[in-house]
Amino acid sequence: MPEGVSIIVPVWNGRALVELLIASLKAQTHPIAEILIVDNGSEDGAPEAAERLGARVIPMGTNAGFSRAVNRGIQEAKTGWLAVVNSDVELAPDWLAHLMRAAEPPDIWFAAGKILSAARRERIDGTWDALCRGGCACRLGHGRPDGPEFSAACTIWFAPGTASLFRAELFRRVGLFDEGFESYLEDVEFGLRCACLHYPGRYAPDAVAYHVGSAALGAWHPGIVRRIARNQVLLVAKYYRAGILCRFAWPIVVSQALWGLVALRHGAFFSFVRGKLEGFARLGTARQNFHRIESHRLAEILRESEREIWRVQRRTGLDWYWRVYFLLTAGGAD
Q1: Is the distance from CB of 273 to CB of 259 less than 8 angstroms?
Q2: The pLDDT value given to residue 215
Q3: Predicted local distance difference test score (pLDDT) of residue 21
Q4: What are the domain boundaries of the chain?
Q5: Which of 24-28, 36-40, 60-64, 89-93 is least confident?
Q6: What SS3 state is found at 175?
Q7: Does residue 181 contact residue 228 with C-beta atoms inside 8 Å?
Q8: Torsion from C-alpha of 248, 253, 257, 258, nearest 10 degrees
Q9: Is-contact 279 233, C-beta < 8 A?
Q10: DSSP string covering 110-121, please?
């Protein structure tokens, strides 16, 4: 397979943002072989605008969700490197060059950079993700001022689907994104798979992107809350064996209940409840897709990831969610 780079962009409306993204892709200092716009049934002319700008449009015909759109792009791509980028992202000109450099070692399978808020460019939107024992994810650095804590390269397991680079071979080894997750936490589930199967990535802080965030629906939209709440259940069902469920029962209860309080605070509690009910209704299917990972390996990953959340939170200021979570669960101890 050629060693070029394919850019995969799931799109659902947002024409102006798509045009801005493509302009930033064309300004990259590292060459790009192809830009694949996977259109989830846009109605505002976004795919037509992308095609005029030289992208190849792959129509899905309907809003099939982020996972299915990305998977279609992976299957259509013709290169050895794949970058998955949200449509509401603008990339610094050397973004791809830095990621390619970070992923150059043969034992590194993906790379993610520093994502800043498009509205407040001195603030972190996200870096890499982490997962606590309770099955809730954390976008490390979200909302914090940019600074030294987020400027050191390191090994990571969870690459955000917002803007990351992957070896195409990785998807042949560990599989595609789980389409049952539809949208939200599908990148965390994929990262957990990579971690369990020993496929590490690299955080490259010099690879900078700017993210609008929730451009299609808006932050705390009921549909977003419902999907996240549902997928939290599916994530636990897919990976936690009975022994791990018993071992981490209290962190699971605490983290999920606290997330419900966050939803309540944002006026989305009923969407949270609906999502949990949807998740429980799909437990049978989720358990059929159960990943038979050694329990000690999963426990090791979750403890390591939770300690990472604690380190970043402690150094940059504890959010109330994590303050209460660590207080009630002994801060990462079994």
Answers
A1: no
A2: 47
A3: 97
A4: 1-87, 222-291+298-332
A5: 60-64
A6: coil
A7: no
A8: -30
A9: yes
A10: EEEEEEEESSST
Listed range (31-40, 68-77, 262-271, 278-287) with the worst mean pLDDT: 278-287
Q: Do 282 and 180 touch, CB atoms closer than 8 A?
A: yes
Residues 245/124, Cβ–Cβ less than 8 Å: no
Residues 309 and 306: their CA atoms lie apart, in Å, by 5
Question: Given the structure tokens 């990579």, which residue do they identify?
Answer: 194
Whether 197 and 157 have beta carbons less than 8 Å apart is answered as no
On whether the CB atoms of residues 227 and 183 are closer than 8 A, the answer is yes
C-beta atoms surrounding 289 within 10 Å: 12
Q: Tokens standing for 254? A: 């605490």
Q: Is the pLDDT of residue 250 over 60?
A: yes
**Apex 311 CA angle, 310 and 315, nearest 5:** 115
- What distance in Å separates the CA atoms of residue 167 and residue 52, rounded to the nearest whole number? 28
Q: Among the residues of 65-177, which ranges form H helices?
A: 66-76, 95-102, 168-174
**CB 55: neighbour CB atoms within 10 A?**
22
The rounded percent of the chain whose pLDDT value lies above 70 is: 94
Report yes or no: 213 and 319 within 8 Å, Cβ to Cβ: no
Q: Which residues lie across from 111 on neighbouring strands?
A: 165, 202
Q: Is residue 89 pLDDT above 80, yes or no?
A: yes
Q: What's the rounded Cα separation, in Å, for the pair 54 and 26?
A: 10
- Residue 172 burial by Cβ neighbours in a 10 Å radius (0-12, 13-18, 19+): exposed
Instruction: Give 151-188 pLDDT, tens digit per residue.
Output: 999 999 999 999 999 999 999 999 999 999 988 999 99
With b for 16 or more beta-carbon neighbours within 10 A and e for fewer, the 105-118 pattern comes to eeebbbbbbbbbbb
Give CA separation, 167 vs 4, 6, 171, 246, in Å.
11, 10, 8, 36
CATH superfamily ID and name for 1-87: Spore Coat Polysaccharide Biosynthesis Protein SpsA; Chain A (3.90.550.10)
Rg (Cα) of the chain, in Å, rounded? Answer: 19
Are the beta carbons of 202 and 92 closer than 8 angstroms? no
